[in-house]
Amino acid sequence: MDFKKYFKIFLFIVIAVAQTEFVFGQEESMLCQGYHWTEEEGKAFLEQRRNTYTTAEAWRDHATKIRKQILKGAGLENYPEKGSLNPIIGKKRIFDGYQVQNVAFESLPGVYVTGSLYTPTNVKKGMLPGILNTHGHFDKPENYGRYRPDAQKRHAALARMGAMVLAYDMVGYGQLAEYGWKHKHPETLKLQLWNSIRALDFLLSLGADPARIGITGESGGATQAFLLTAVDDRISVSVPVVQVSAHFFGGCIGESGMPIHKNEDFQTNNVEIAALAAPRPMLLISDGDDWTKNTPEVEYPHIKYIYGLLGKPYNVENVHLPNDIHGYQDNKRAAAYPFLAEHLEGLDLSKAMNADGTLKESGIIIEDQESLYPFNEKHPFPISGIRNNDDVVW
Description:
Blueprint: H1 3-29, H2 39-50, H3 56-73, E1 88-89, E2 93-94, E3 98-108, E4 111-120, E5 128-134, H4 149-160, E6 164-168, H5 188-205, E7 208-218, H6 220-231, E8 237-241, H7 253-256, E9 262-263, E10 266-267, H8 270-274, E11 282-287, H9 299-309, E12 316-321, H10 330-343
């Protein structure tokens, strides 16, 4: 038996395994997921950071590094070519003050993003402000994504106010989940962020005013909202709901499953990422039920400090609802509508709220989920459409 030969083979295998574990260990260490820090650690991080950018120029330099890390960590350092959106737009369903059309568009060849377009029925001539609506991780059929009753009320109310509203599905949600798409894919975050960029392209292609574009969403939808706002300055106004936290980094692979927060010599968190909106108007909505319970004392003051460096501390606000639970319930919509109306010129708040501050959402029809699907027997899923994450060609 040639012991030297077998020893060399054994040694080669040991080294290869060690190198593999080292590489995977590095990649794993670059991920900041879920409750990555304690509340105290998150607060201490912001306090330390505050001392490193004391001027507008210092913050802008740091913001550039954060934005670069988001794009590099998400695999979007170099954008793919923006091909034709090839929009699919369904018939209008007319309701009280608004109308709905089911839509789909290609974010990449064969990758169809599904959603619904809400617009006012009494449209005045000229371009409308546009509002992207993202949704969180609500998986039960009766409590699901953009089809939730509170989501449909929000979309319709914003349309009644005079906006062109696009509500679109996360990767692996909605109708495309039925076609094999998975939300828990290693590159979900990459495709989700790209879909948001293309959703904005789609909204603008329909005639939304490029100077008046808003975005709002709750929980994981808020992560999508502040990530898109961070990397795309076409967003004018943002309202991330119950998600911006100093210590919580998002519990889903679509939020923190790629190294957007950290590399070998760099670290950030979702507070700094959300602050990339500055000096554009942003409303943080928080509650006492989740990881945003400290927002008035921790996250909001830090972001307001950054807005102050840029000379517009009044452009960021926080509505904290200590007795509310996680979600986008009535109180949160009652906070979001006035802020969007204030900063997206032309919206009529009286169409969504009464003078006493209560919601005016009566007459909004909650449609069943399948009614909001763009594909059905009469309009089948395109033959060229991709049916799973692994077939995406970047």
